[in-house]
Amino acid sequence: MVTANGDKKDGVQVLSRKDFVSDQEVRWCPGCGDYSILAQTQKVMPELGIPRENIVFISGIGCSSRLPYYMDTYGMHSIHGRAPTIASGLKASRPELSVWVVTGDGDALSIGGNHLLHVLRRNIDLQIILHNNQIYGLTKGQYSPTSELGKRTKSSPVGTIDAPLHPLTVALGAEATFVARTVDVDPHHMVGVLERAYQHHGSAFCEVYQNCNIYNDGAFADFTAKEVRADRMLFLEHGKPMIFGKERNKGIRINGLQPEVVEIGVDGITEADLLVHDETRPDPTIAFMLSRMSYPDFPVPIGVIRAVQRPTYDDLMTAQIEHAVAVEGEGDLRTLFTEGDTWVVE
């Protein structure tokens, strides 16, 4: 198989990042975190070894939802909140495709909340990337479902009185089998999370903390800035104790039913006392705990929070169809249309 550039290796298609860069002008505000997400998405695609014609990006409405224009793959810029619905239909009818949903905190968690819940509970085999900037950017600065309590915006001039949604908690509550978080200012980490999302068989939900430098600049800087990141973020690694800090001397342990921050070497505390991250734990209790940890009380967890396996909707549907054909034989549309209750209108 040959690429657009004529390159091949051992008869297998060889792609690079530039093969996934479309000819469309990127129209985001200069400095927007979406540029980083786009760059890492384009970077990771050739590593997956999938022909471009087998990759589809589907989005709803919002700043994040322009991303399909900038990917040289198939794609669809759909309607507000309905990207998961369209992606579900595509994956069910074309299971061989790699289907990616691109959405934002407003698109996915307000008008699209119902659709997000059901694609996750059904465990349809696709990847959902949620850009979370805690604001409505495209419509010019109203508070979103993830904006913090008391946030002053154009639509909440004296502070929002809505309790914010926690995207990872919502995903876990919908029985998502893969839940992860990354940040726009750590490209290497983001690439790793996107790769893991693709490798997962089932619905993969990834939240990306993304800076909106026009309407919510610095929303995550208190813990994502390079100079404080080590002390204020918890990089999760499966099978390893939850350690953080520049000196790697802080950790998370369970005290009763609550997590707490401890310092290794103080009061006899050792690594053995710390909580060990297990992303494959069937019970989601610890994952729920991690999804709600936030700065300044705790370091902010990033990485894969949960990765478990259960049958996917598409696999179960295919099995049902194959069983029905084996028992009843191939269907016939004419027979279907004329059987049962019919009427003749004179």
Describe what is shown at a glance:
The protein has helices at 34-44, 67-70, 83-93, 105-111, 113-122, 167-173, 187-199, 221-224, 229-232, 285-291, 313-328, 333-338; strands at residues 8-9, 12-13, 55-59, 74-77, 98-104, 127-132, 178-183, 204-209, 233-235, 243-244, 250-255, 258-263, 300-307. With 346 residues, it is an alpha/beta fold.
| Beta-strand residue percentage | 15-25%
The CATH architecture of the domain at 8-219 and 311-319 would be 3-Layer(aba) Sandwich
The CATH class of the domain at 8-219 and 311-319, by name, is Alpha Beta
* CATH homology group of the domain at 8-219 and 311-319: Thiamin diphosphate (ThDP)-binding fold, Pyr/PP domains
Describe the structure.
This protein has helices at residues 34-44, 67-70, 83-93, 105-111, 113-122, 167-173, 187-199, 221-224, 229-232, 285-291, 313-328, 333-338; strands at residues 8-9, 12-13, 55-59, 74-77, 98-104, 127-132, 178-183, 204-209, 233-235, 243-244, 250-255, 258-263, 300-307. It contains twelve helices and 13 strands. The protein has a domain at 8-219 and 311-319: 3-Layer(aba) Sandwich (Rossmann fold), CATH 3.40.50. Strand 7, helix 7 (187-199) and strand 8 form a beta-alpha-beta unit. Helices cover 29% and strands 18% of the residues. It is globular and about 85 Å long. The N and C termini lie far apart (59 Å). The model has no long low-confidence stretch (mean pLDDT 94). Helix 1 (34-44) packs across helix 7 (187-199) and helix 4 crosses helix 5 (113-122). Strands 4-3-5-6-8-7-13-9 form an eight-stranded mixed beta sheet, sandwiched between helices. By secondary structure, the chain is α/β, with parallel strands linked by helices.
